[in-house]
Amino acid sequence: MTKNAKVERLSTEKIGKLLWEMASQTTFSLLVYAIYSITDTYFLSVGINSLAAAGASIISPVLIALGAVATTVGAGGASVVSRALGEQNEIKASRTVANTYLIFWTAAISITILGAIFIEPIVYLLGATETIAPYAVVYGRIIFLGAITSTGFSTIIRADGNIRYSTAIWVIPVTANLVLSWLFVMVLRIGVAGAALATVAGQAISAGMAVYFFFFRKNRSYQIKAAYFKPDWHLIGEVLLIGFPSLAKNLSASLLVIVTNNLLKLVGGDAGLAVYAIVSRLYSSLNMPQTGIVQGMQPLVGFNFGQKKFARVQETIRLSLGASVVYGLLVLGLCLLFPAALISLLSQESLIISEGQTALRLLALSYPLTGVALITAASFQSIGRAKEALLLTLGGILLVKLPVLLLAAHFFSLNGIWASEAASELVLCLISLLMLKNFQSKSTSHWQYEQAR
Questions:
Q1: CA 165 to chain centroid
Q2: Is 89 in a helix, a strand, or coil?
Q3: Res 427 pLDDT > 90
Q4: Global pTM value
Q5: CA proximity to 245, closest of 69, 68, 393
Q6: Is the dihedral of CA 398, 425, 21, 176 positive or negative?
Q7: Were both Cys, which of 40, 100, 108, 213 would link to 77 (CB 3.0–4.6 Å)?
């Protein structure tokens, strides 16, 4: 299949088939990462202790912040690239990729320098206790030093229609990461430094695969010349504007984790933080398929919107929402019925298993709801409507999730912290459906007008 045929099929084949193909492959990639994530936590908690797992968990806002940079330029770049390819403007697509790299490299180097210098005060700000801080410092310093490798731009690769390569760029690095983590932590006994080194090594493989895809492979859509790396401020502005909801979402999510860690430090101490390290990793891993659905539908929405095929855009959103809700109900049932068995996959400590069951059950109540806001925000982002996406992402966390978390912790203590996720997702779900209904009504009228002309 030629490169044009791979892209054009996004506007010709059945939406259900395309969505299944793209979402299943991205979900497979994310599930591989989820398996690694669970196993990595198991290596830390069993190979060292639950405090080591908590130390790595304390650094999770740093990983979210790095992901925020990568997702910002990746989502923004993918939106511009999808529409440029839909308009058959390959030069704009190539310039976008080059400028996306410029933005990311500049941000990553800055993060590396600041993070490595201020690592100790950072871990206490993130909520570490005196016993957890030493693990967090070692782990965090290595993660900061490897920031330049922290993305492979899989979203832009999917925008080109190369689903298999976007899958490989997840599966191969994560597999290497998993093997190295086992080797460094369980065999060589390097400790949390080994887990961090394995993470950076996996990221480096992903970054190298991305460089090959964009600059060296044959029959590529992106003929990137050296001149394209000259800053194009209009393109940079467009990428950042569209990607800003992702930046806002991830940075505010990072803030939410920091607040959660500090609340747990006050309410639950080391035990509360250790439970959160285990259960939150399990919770996010089980949520990966919903993220896969979101990532699979984005190029379909962006490309068909670029070709003014609004009915296909609406069908993609409708099918994505249905798949997300059905999956959420299945996982909710699993967590309600077998919480102890799931937690024991990550920890063998009786205290973690006993106290973690309530936490997992309450967190799991959000599963059928969480995909609605994600899909709605991603849909607006894919068609270049950054304002609506920003309202759902930044507004959703700062105006809904954070206040609900603080109120729930104040009135219901530890159980309130666990239940706050589901309560806030219910509010965001209702807001998202109202926004989506309004948008679809307007786009349907526009589509009918275009057909009548």
A1: 18
A2: coil
A3: yes
A4: 0.74
A5: 393
A6: positive
A7: 100
